[in-house]
Amino acid sequence: MNWTRIATVGEVGDDEGLAIKLEGRDLALFRSNGEFFVTDNICTHQYALLTDGYVEDGCVECPLHQALFDLRTGEAKCAPATQPIKVYPVKVEDDGIYVSLG
Amino acid sequence: MASTFPSDDHAAPIVIVGAGQAGGMAARCLREVGYRGAVIIVGDEAHLPYERPPLSKAVLADEQVPDVSLMPASFYAEHGIDLKTGTRAIRLDADRRQVELEDGAILSFSSCLLATGGRARQLPLCAGAAAAVHTLRTLDDALRLREAMRTANSVLIIGGGFLGLEIASTARMRGLEAMLVEQAPQLLERALPPLLSRWLGERAAAHGVQLHLNASLASLSEDAGGVRAVLGDGATLRADLAVVAVGLAPEVTLAREAGLRIDAHNGGIVVDAHCRTSAASVFAAGDCTSRPHAATGALVRLESWQNANEQARIAAAAMLGIDTAPAATPWFWTDQFGCNVQMLGHRDPALDYYVRGTLPSGCESGKALLFGVREGRLEHVVAINAGGDLRAFRDAVDQPLACAPQALCDPDAPAKQLARLALGRART
Predict the structure, then answer these.
(1) pLDDT score of B2
(2) CATH of segment(s) A4-99
């Protein structure tokens, strides 16, 4: 896997998100219950940045219409979204957070 | 999975009248909680259940008509749901537990859910100008309006509510001249505090909408293929088409004729917190209902996507006799003039409002939160482009405020921290 360093651990607080641009993609780095997740940052329902949304219990809620996504699987857990968001492998080494776009 | 409801296999079906947001979601919820008995949905529109919020926005504006289906077409057959579209129910007999369809068929039910929604209110004075006068409630209405907007240069909107403003916003996005007539002195007077009504009016004007507030409509007539409106003060407006957006009349014919209790004030089918009507075995959900306000118990009719979903979930559980969480705090959104505006809780004229952030003026973007407080309770929160921040306050609405309301206006503190402060759960 090709790992790219995208942030340091201190840059994103618990239940917060950070928008990341990488290789032309809009990615979102989230931290929830101490764990880090990287997903696509655009809601699959309508254009909105998920990093402007609400993070809790391993899920992010879209700021526009409250569509809820599982950060681990990307699954759309409630209406109005029906399509999942893409999720990416993440690793933490020392204080660096790395993502693999595959 | 084994059937968990004793009467699943032998009982008469659950019949859902109305194939909109509430009807479709209720069927889905019945399956999600494990009910395996027969479910029939009867809907008079030709379409599969669909979502209405995009009708005034993406369906009118996008290059291609977006898919607005509530669930994929295959969902109903896959879940053993008998969906009868293009079918009108004409009679409900609550005592005999039967629904009669237009074609004479009789459906017996174990429980019946009325999810009949409503119809766009019409203006009687539009009768002579029918061809160029539109309303917007159904997908077919939206497709007809979309087609008319393709060749029109101007649109006259009667009614400055959420729907009228969204149509005006979409019309401007498509480059049409837009005029809006509202009889009240302010836009959305009942839904928003005066500060926000004024702001929204300024925003609409900055986007090129000609607003006529405090204006009554004396006549609306056909004029060379378009429409001509004469206002109470004598002013004349001409447009290629008109949209009447003066509210929704709940569709309660079946319920009324069946003797169910109807709210004399708001016209909805009266239900309790479990979506039970005044007749045993008959439930109701969505725009057609008049339901108790969680905090005060007063009956209110909520026309919203969220209320349809919440009541669908609650009615499904009630029909099966199982427990479910109470209805979430009312939540509503509108997208217009480049802003996403969300409202949580109930608006009341007695509330005092406190603002965090700055309302984005003109065509600018920006974020703000408004907190509506009465006697130390947070009752209403409005977010401008700040839905994520609003979400943090979901548990704080209808609760005593544990801090001074001014403390919520700190623009530097994260919303979650402010919500904890409001609830008295601040981390030390």
Answers:
(1) 45
(2) 2.102.10.10
| Residue numbers in A near B71 (CB within 8 A) | 82
3-state secondary structure B230-253: EECCCCEEEECEEEECCCEEECCH
Chain B: give the shortest CA distance to residue A89, in Å. Answer: 25
What burial class does residue B382 get, using C-beta atoms within 10 Å of its C-beta: 0-12 exposed, 13-18 middle, 19+ buried? buried
pLDDT digits (tens, 9 = 90+) for B297-341: 999 999 999 999 999 999 999 999 999 999 999 999 999 999 999
pLDDT at B28: 96
Q: How far apart are CA B403 and CA B414, in angstroms?
A: 16
Selecting from B25, B72, B387 the residue whose C-beta is nearest the C-beta of A63 gives B387
Report which of A8, A57, A17 is spatially closest to residue A41, judged by C-alpha positions: A17
What homologous superfamily is domain B122-246 in, according to CATH? Answer: FAD/NAD(P)-binding domain (3.50.50.60)
ipTM above 0.95, yes or no: no
Which residues of B, range 338-367, sit inside 8 Å of A by Cβ? Answer: 340
Predicted pLDDT at B363: 87
